[in-house]
Sequence to fold (919 residues):
Amino acid sequence: MNLNSLTIKEAKVGLKNKKFSSVELTKACLEQIKKYNKDLNVFITVTEKEALDSAKKADELILSGQDLPLLGIPIALKDLFLTKGIKTTAASNVLKDYIPQYDATVVKKLKDAGAVILGKTNLDAWAHGSSGENSDFGPTKNPWNKDYVPGGSSSGSAAALTADMCIASTGTDTAGSIRLPASFNNIVGLKPTYGRVSRYGIVAMASSLDSIGHFTKTVEDSALFFNVTAGKDPMDATTLEKEYTAKPLNKIKIGVDPDFLSKSLEIETLNLLAKAYNVFKNDLEIEDFIPDVSLSHQEYGIACYYIIQPAEVSSNLARYDGIRYGLRRANFGDEAKRRIMLGTYTLSAGYYDTYYKRAMQVRTLIKQDFDTAFKKVDAIIAPVSPTPPWKLGEKINDPLKMYLSDKFTVTANLAGIPGLSIPIGFTSKGLPVGLQILGPHFSEELLFKIGCAYEQATKNEIWRKLKPKL
Amino acid sequence: MNIKKYQPVIGLEVHVELKTKSKMFCGCSADHFGQKPNTHTCPVCLGLPGALPVPNKKAIDWCIMIGLALNCKIPLFSKFDRKNYFYPDLAKGYQISQYDEPFCQKGFIELSNGKKIGITRVHMEEDTAKLMHQFGNQKSKIKNQNDEGYSLIDFNRSGVPLVEIVTEPDFENAKEVVEYLKKLQQIVRYLNVSDADMEKGNMRLEPNISLTTNNKLPIYKVEVKNINSFRFVEKAIEYEIKRQTESLKEGKIPVQETRGWDEDKQKTVTQRVKEEANDYRYFPEPDIPPIRLSELQITNYKLQIKELPDAKLIRFIKSYNLSQYDAEILTRQIGLANYFEESVKVGKPHQISLKQIANTIINKKIDIKNILPAQLIKNIISSQKTDDIGEDKLREIINKVMKENSKAVEDYKSGHENAIMFLVGQVMRNSKQKLDANKVKEKLKKVLQ
Fold:
């Protein structure tokens, strides 16, 4: 049995029952990384020594009967998460040698929960991208087929998990940057409610849209991980906590926006989705499946997003002037420059009202769509990507085409609601496809419940046994 | 002959540094004056990747109190905005400030001539770091390629809370500006929210000066920076008015620009030309949720504000029957005003008069920090005590003094009334005791008859 192909739950049981140690588990992951990282370009930094030290300490604690939520579990962090003393690059040449002086709040929480940090994963530089191809350090390849993209911007974190290089990994989702790569890699990805997980110490992309989430192999693992990272943080004024109890499954109504299915979905994606919808409808014993929940302003999502996000990006990247840390601005990549210019333009005098202000108003309408919908249903299921993973290089010369891959995921960020991406099968080419479950603010518990039920209902499907040929 | 009368149109921007313990958006100490450089910093005020601002509630409380003390309206909804521009002293490449929905709006200050100076707005922002320039051709320790000089940045000041108070262009001369500044400084010190010391940089002033004729709107505006002390406020403004007048007399419209006050040269000099307003690309600060106040909260703020200088002055004149002059001195600083009132309270049972207390405090420059009101009263009481040396002894000393000071006796007898005070003094000195001066004077008069 490969230790590194265990889930968090399985690993915890194994560690507790002394079937293996954290050091062994960590070594298994490190071996996997050594074998395949060069080819797949998943990790920017591997912290072998630190990981083994942590694992050793974890073993001591486990031996003494201690139990922490992630004690001894090796994880990978997207290289936007600041790690004290460990290089953090945002996959950009501007920060290629930057060593932070502090840990992100989430990193601290994960460490306090006993997690073993294996290293920092590759991404689209500054989280600008949907394929992983905008990294200044070369694209990550999809472990399921190395000619294809793993999805972005959390490309490395998704690939690391599906290639069994770690037991869980972190990411950020600003327009789908967790949900999309999760769906492209046959893993579970959570985009939490905006404000439920602290952004302090994570390189900011778009401050009002960034959501801090993670990748796991199962929905149950996702819930476990979320319990560690979620919580109000005095260092982040936009975090908050709220009481929420999920209804039992048999009282849940799930809705679908019919427009999503008709909106030029790639045919195999469409088929897999239809199949999945039937499972929800017939096999989960929910109260009702409502096929006509309309989100009428959905179609304006990308336009709205590509005004607000670059505006915030252009401001958030201003601090990288090379004076106090990092290299000079000439080191920004093309996509970063593109977004800085776009954002500066939409905020400039004479254009603010036409672009930024108007986009913010449309944003309110998009949020209201969900508010209205969630009065009718408890959750919505929807596609994640309009297509399965595309080939490396296919969309890179057409930024607009690339931007449109976010059209189903972006509205959740504009509204601040949570989304859980779960695998639903493979195309005939062997490429993974996923689906997302969306719920009202603070409804993660509900999403986990529904996701788990789907997992259970489909646990014997053949595709669940597939593993990438590395 | 058409003699154009140029009217000055002056508006003021004053920045007041709040003396909160922590900075505006992080927990670093806000005490930066005279500290070792870059010792009060953290990821937030250094603008490190991933850092986020968390507003200082006390600073906001104090900003609102300043606004209320300036008769402003406090809207129930307010927010922070990002003001985007590049400069090495601005760590994030943007300053968190307030743009269109500041904490306080539309207030006023009344000057002694009855004129009301409109306060457009009072808002919160963060201070920048401090730049220190070393000009070239100096033997510098830091290796510099061409020895062109370098600039050092001290981030201790980065993020310190600033309250900006903007007036309508209601001032017509430098004297009004000085009076306004003194009043504003006094109010802010009364509230105990800032030391408002121009020399220390915790109160900064930027006048906008224009000239116009026939009450028309001015067609240009000159901003003057770097006025660092009260002494130069009047000089700088008057210099600028003169400069603009001369320019207009020659038919030249003064350039719209920012000028700096040069203390050494005692004139304003061009700093940078403002062709049009900078585009700061303001947008609402997404990292800080907007601030929503309730009417109850605003009422609570009002209750927290104790008696302000103008009201205290009026009350002192009325209740204590003081002259305007004396009352102004006693209410100039709240510490002194409280000391006076405390002393009056303590002195009452001993029948010490208000006038005595006022005079003592004003004229004797009492060290109010080290002498408690009770001690002051004790001192006054004992200073009033006089010794009685007996009639004979007194007569003896008087005779001695008269013999030794025949000139003074002559002067008095020939009509110089004041000479008697000299003699009184001599009697007092000779007695080596504290005599009742009036008694001595009466006695002397009798003898000299």
Q: What stands out?
A: The first strand of chain A starts at residue 43 and ends at 46. Chain A touches chain B at residues 80, 82, 88, 90, 95, 98, 100-102, 104, 199-204, 206-208, 234-238, 311-312, 314-315, 317-321, 323-325, 344, 347-349, 352, 356 (CB under 8 Å).
